[in-house]
Amino acid sequence: MDIIILRKPNFQFSETTKVRLPILIRLVCIFLFVYTAHAKIVDHDRFLKGLTRVHIINGYALYISWLVPIIEIIVSLLLLIPQTAKQGLIAFIGVMILFTGYILSAMIWEPVLPCLCGGAIEKLSWSQHVWFNLAFILLAILALRLINFINIFKKQQK
């Protein structure tokens, strides 16, 4: 007769961590978007001029220069409100995927790449931007999974 020993995974989140970690991730995502939106609005002329230098979007630069910070603020508000946090995380992931796609396409087709992120994030290289965005996408996915886990757990408790 064979004996099967089931081991618990070495790394597990406590129940408290599963509740608090999505909140912390949401706050970090809010900070990122509010920080970059603020930088784009405060120095709007510079942001707009930079967008006009990107050939693949220069025809829409004026619209994009206002639309991007507005979207960042709206997503931040969704993340802030507990009832819309899940939709905010989904929107955050979508926007970050768009930003990453823009960076990758600009890296391929643009001879000169102006960074228009705002603040300290502009100091990153383009490959660092991609990794930075991917890390935030993964964090937001983790938060979504934890929220789903918490919701399933709550339903089972009823």
Automatic annotation (TrEMBL):
The protein here is known as Methylamine utilisation protein MauE domain-containing protein
What organism, scientifically named, is this protein from?
A: Mucilaginibacter pineti
* Residues in Methylamine utilisation protein MauE domain copies: 21-144
Q: Which GO terms describe its biological process?
A: methylamine metabolic process
Query: Per its UniProt entry, which superkingdom is the organism in?
Result: Bacteria
Q: Which UniProt keywords apply?
A: Membrane, Transmembrane, Transmembrane helix
**Location (main, coarse):** membrane
UniProt KW Transmembrane helix keyword: yes
- Membrane topology qualifier: Multi-pass membrane protein
Q: Where in or outside the cell is it found?
A: Membrane
Transmembrane regions listed in the UniProt entry: 21-41, 61-81, 88-109, 129-153
Q: Which GO terms describe its cellular component?
A: membrane
The cross-references to InterPro entries, in alphabetical order and at most eight, read:
Methylamine_util_MauE
